[in-house]
Amino acid sequence: MSMETTAWTQLHGVLNAERDRRPFARATLRRIGAFARPHRRRITVFLLLGVVTALLAVATPVLAGHVVDALVSGGDEGTVVRLALLIAAIAVAEAVLGILSRRLSATLGEGLILDLRTTVFDHVQRMPVAFFTRTRTGALVSRLNNDVIGAQRAFSNTLSGVVGNVVTLLLTLAVMLGLSWQITLLALVLLPVFVVPARRMGTRMARMQREAAALNASMGTRMTERFSAPGATLIKLFGRPEEESAQFALRAGRVADIGVRTATAQAAFITALTLVSALALALVYGLGGFYALRGSLEPGAVVSLALLLTRLYAPLTALAGARVEVMSALVSFERVFEVLDLEPLIAEKPGARTVPDGPVAVEFDDVRFGYPSADKVSLASLEETAALDTRGGAEVLHGVSFRAEPGQTVALVGSSGAGKSTIAQLVPRLYDAGSGTVRVGGVDVRDLTARSLRDTVGMVTQDGHLFHDTVRANLLLARPDAAEDDLWAALGRARLDTLVRSLPDGLDTVVGERGYRLSGGERQRMTIARLLLARQRVVILDEATAHLDNTSEAAVQEALAEALEGRTALVIAHRLSTIRAADQILVVEAGRIVERGTHDELLAADGRYAQLHRARSARPAARVPADAPAGTPG
Q1: What distance in Å separates the CA atoms of residue 173 and residue 184, rounded to the nearest whole number?
Q2: On the CB side of 134, how many CA atoms lie within 13 Å of its CA?
Q3: Quick check: 359 and 460 in contact, CB under 8 A?
Q4: How confident is the model at residue 629 (pLDDT cuts 50, 70, 90)?
Q5: Burial class of residue 296 (count of CB atoms within 10 Å of its CB; 0-12, 13-18, 19+)
Q6: What are phi and psi for residue 302, nearest 5 degrees?
Q7: Beta strands in 159-252 (DSSP E)
Q8: I want to staple 591 with a disulfide (CB 3.0 to 4.6 A). Which of 243, 397, 427, 506 is the partner?
């Protein structure tokens, strides 16, 4: 490895490690060891290959010196040929070992990435909804990409580099001291001239790198917001293209400026180190030649010393920067472990039960609930704040009690923010009650297995979400083993089969990010079709028909009436068509049930429900046409 290459390597390490220099506990190292244990055989072979490669690297300069001595002393041709063949064999061996080492490095690194990514992904999936409502998606994805790759470098680069460089350094020093201890000591005097500028320039480059990363992140965030479907719609409706262009040009100009400064600093850095390398070689040739002419040193030894010099400075410089590389890898590991150490608030109990067979009742027994504070469900680094907000836990549900009998439809009505959706979210355990009990099929939901609860309780929210995937894939989320006839049957009952048949690829048509290639009403009917396909015994509709026009609503209500027959349903709706048909209506205000009864009973009581009824009757809700394009307000 040349001195210039080593300089680049060290610079790269500094750029990646300057972000953090915290001390690390032994517990972090033990956890790293636990991840590395399944790969210990590969790691051992990998390190042995590094040692052998280091031995070969030192052998070549020594043999080159012997060739020069043979030429100067007039040795026979056979000796020179044998030495040349040996040098060639070493070169071939180095090439083969290099390929094997690279393959093993890739296998080891990618295996570790796979282990870390799957572990973090599985852990994040177990986190409660509150975690996802607070964390920034980009920061979370970065843990699965950048930080995992940074951790992988600890094994594929840093570990082998440290071992190989230590072996190379010791062997090179031993050989050089044996050839000429005077020249070796003088060569080492130039080491600070080589290392100190590298460290200082590396720190400066790291600052510019962080500045460039921040500017790129700002530019990227602006592009992401403006290029999403809702963001682009907003800009077209209210934005000023000239100002948007000027703002983007300003950010892009800053990125370009920091790029020029970084490139200039890098060029100066490499030029200075190349000069130091030339001065060191000049010292060896000058002093070595002086000793050779005086007869106190063989000419071949001068050549060997010159070649070994690069083998000496390279590992010395790399080891001088090894700390920052190790710190960089440890920072990445700690950031990954930080996510893994965040315990999910909702966990399945050992020995959890399944929901009993048959019709299912839903019961709330004196349920009280407060949303958890940020420090209970999130990380400051994932929210990009200095510290998490410890406020929270204020009670929003106060002693809620009711029972939905098997096959009954219970409607929840009330003002916005009264707690209706919160009640609905406690049934599928998107959150857990603070006190009291939520029962499904007579069993506390906290005593049920997650799979059993998912198979029993289905939910359609107001903003029905679709993945950027095909119609088929979005439907199969509900029932992966469903046949194609089942998919068409569900679409037909949701009054969506005609539309899907008209799409270019039918069931295999991609619906776009969040389903934005469909209208609001079409997206909502797609989520209802998914619910119908799942055939769960408890159904929760949270404003499920909010985006449908009168015709589509009537059609879907017919389908829902068929689907809800014999099933227990909790329905949150403002439309009277849904509320009238409910077996029981609960009026929720400020987290309490203030009235309950049938539609006629509550109107006769002339209480809060009657007030809501009169207000909504006097103020008809706006309708969104079924064929309205995606993103149309309404």
Answers
A1: 8
A2: 23
A3: no
A4: very low
A5: exposed
A6: -65, -45
A7: none
A8: 397
Cα–Cα distances (Å) from 626 to 531, 566, 631, in that order, read: 20, 29, 12
For residue 429 the two structure tokens come to: 């355990």
Express each pLDDT in 37-78 by its tens digit. 888 888 888 888 878 887 888 888 888 887 887 777 776 777
Domain chopping of the chain, boundaries: 3-340, 362-374+395-464+537-618
Q: Has domain 3-340 been given CATH number 1.20.1560.10?
A: yes
Buried b (16+ CB within 10 A) or exposed e, 158-194: bbbbbbbbbbbbebbbebbeebbeebbeebeebbeeb
> Residues 6 or more apart from 394 whose CB is under 8 A from it?
370, 371
* CB of 353 closer than 8 Å to CB of 448: yes
Per-residue pLDDT of 390-414, as tens digits, reads 666 688 999 999 999 998 899 999 8
Higher-scoring residue by pLDDT: 181, 86: 86
d(CA 222, CA 107): 37
Asked if CATH classification 3.40.50.300 holds for the domain at 362-374+395-464+537-618, the reply, yes or no, is yes
pLDDT at 320: 62
Q: How far is CA 76 from the centre of its chain?
A: 65
Model pTM above 0.70:
no
